[in-house]
Structure formats: C-alpha cells, structure tokens
C-alpha cells in the first residue's frame, strides 16, 4: 500500500493505492487540496491531476472518493478536476461526503442555506465565498450521491481494507446544520505568520504550568470532518483532516484504546495542518507511533503551530515529523531545539509505503 501526501498548498490531498485480496489494484482519494493541486495558473499539471491521469491510464478506478468537509483547501482541487474533465464521474465508484442536504435529511430538520452552495452543472463551477462549498448537485447529476451520512461508529470492510470512522458525531453534524454561517474576514481564518522561532523546551514548560488551558477549535465545519482509522493487513494509520481532538479522543476510547493501551499506527496525520486548537496532549497520548505527518506549505494560517510540535515531542522525544514542503522541514526547529532534542527528526515526505 502506498499513501501519498500530495502538495496541496495549505490544504490536504491524499491518494491511497493498494491491492485487494485478489490482487486487483484499488484507489482511494481523500480531499482535493487547493485548485493548484489539480491544475495551476501557468498551465502545469498539479500532483492530483498526475495521480488521476495515472489511474485512468492504467484502466483503474477511484474506488472511494472522500471529501472530509466543506473547506476550500480540501475541495478546490476536486472542483477544478470536475470542471476540466467531463469524464471524471466515469471512474468514480463511491463518494463519501456529508452534504447539507444529507445532514438535513438525516436529522429531519430544515436545510441550512449556507450549506447549499453548489455546482450548477458538470462544466461550470461556482465556488462561492472561501469558507465552504457543496458539490452535492454534481454528485446527484451523475448518480454518485448516497443515502445517509458518514459518521462515528461506521465500520466499512471492503477490498481487504477496514475503515473505522471516528468523526463526525451526531452532535457535530447537528452543530454544522444549525449553527454554521459563512465567515469572511474573521481573524480566526485570516491570521498569517508562524511561531517557529519559539523553542520547544520553553513551550513544554509553559504548558506544564497549572494555569495552562487548552482551547479547542470551535469551527463547525472543521468539527464535521470525516476522520478514520484505516487498517490494511494488520497495519493501521490515522487520517484526521481538520477534526476536533475531544471527539477523536472519545472515539478512540470507545474502540478500547487508552493512555495505557494506545492505538498502534504506522503514522498519524496531525489534525488541521498542525493547528494548536485541533491537537491536544490527550490525543497524542492515545496514539502509539513514531511518525507524524503534517500537510501544509504554512501559507495563510502559519501552520503548523510550534506548540503542537512541542506536544508531540513531550510525548515522544524520538518523534519523526514529516511535512510535504521543504519550507516547513527546513525551518521548523530552532538550533536550541536541535540541541535539546537531538533524536527528534523533521523530514520531507511524499509518500508512505505500508509494507505488506
């Protein structure tokens, strides 16, 4: 199995390729990143387009396409693909996406109009404002929509693969439907710059103080992220999108994991590109791994936040932090960090090979 973390600007785009029990090649795409992930402004093919073209050229399909939630840094690449490739629906076999309509039907409540921006047809894409979009109409047109919602406790076993969905919860879907409103100009979504000049030892000491309080992200759309524990031939990994840690921790505990019995994974995707409000100490205590993947070029929001790296290192002083951009790998640690924690590594990543 190959898990590729595509360069998606400050977003997420993950391509998983593997063989089923009969040796047939299978493919999963999770999120599409920014528009440039598929096709950029100077007419060069982006990494998502290259992956899709390879799948098509091999006569294979996208067996599962997952849009974790309605954020432009997760959906734009898919929209650009749909806009430019009229044959896109022909290779998609199943889609997981919690549209506003699906959530309303599940909860038996009125729709939220802010969740009803949509693609008018297969050739014209209207992305609306930056904070959200729905592509359910496109799915309906091409018979790719599904009944029901994807949420906690869903367990799917197919193609020699097991997916345990951790989030969203019923309450998180309810919050998205009832409380989500488009936000423009909100400082929580427009902050820039990073805090990488801080030293890990200083942050760890600060967060050890009794007065320290973790403040969880309150974004309804981030909280609605589809997250999963994926197992392939007895080896597992965590994909956490932009999720909220409280609910992810609760889901892991419900699966029988604890600080004393953490879930053992080949790697974990650090939530929300390493945002300080989406990764708490408890989350890292519930996961047994050496490998932590952060997908972002650090534009826009300054991710990853240095305190998230500190929380990882406090749990695991031999952690390997992976990023898919050199800007992050080359600048994340200070010289003092390297002296204080000589076993911590920061590496560039393009893919993980899950050995069979």
Shape: globular
Helix content: 25-40%
* Averaged pLDDT: 89
Q: Which range does the strand content fall in? A: 15-25%
Number of domains: 2
Give me the count of strands. 16
Task: Give the helix tally.
Answer: 13
Q: SSE string, helix = H, strand = E?
A: EEEHEHEHHEEHHHHEEHEEHEEHEHHEE
Low-confidence stretches: 117-134, 184-191
Rounded to an integer, what's the Rg over CA atoms? 20 Å
**Separation, N- and C-terminal Cα atoms:** 7 Å
* Secondary-structure class: alpha/beta
Main sheet makeup: 6 strands, mixed
Task: Output the strand order for the largest sheet.
Answer: 5-4-3-2-1-16
Architecture blueprint of SSEs:
Elements: E1 2-5, E2 14-19, E3 25-30, H1 47-57, E4 64-66, H2 72-84, E5 95-96, H3 100-107, H4 136-141, E6 155-158, E7 161-167, H5 170-179, H6 187-190, H7 200-207, H8 220-223, E8 227-232, E9 235-239, H9 245-254, E10 263-264, E11 268-269, H10 281-285, E12 287-288, E13 291-294, H11 306-315, E14 320-323, H12 326-331, H13 335-340, E15 345-348, E16 351-353
Parallel strand pairs: 3-4, 4-5, 10-12, 11-13, 13-14, 14-15
Antiparallel strand pairs: 1-2, 1-16, 2-3, 6-7, 7-8, 8-9
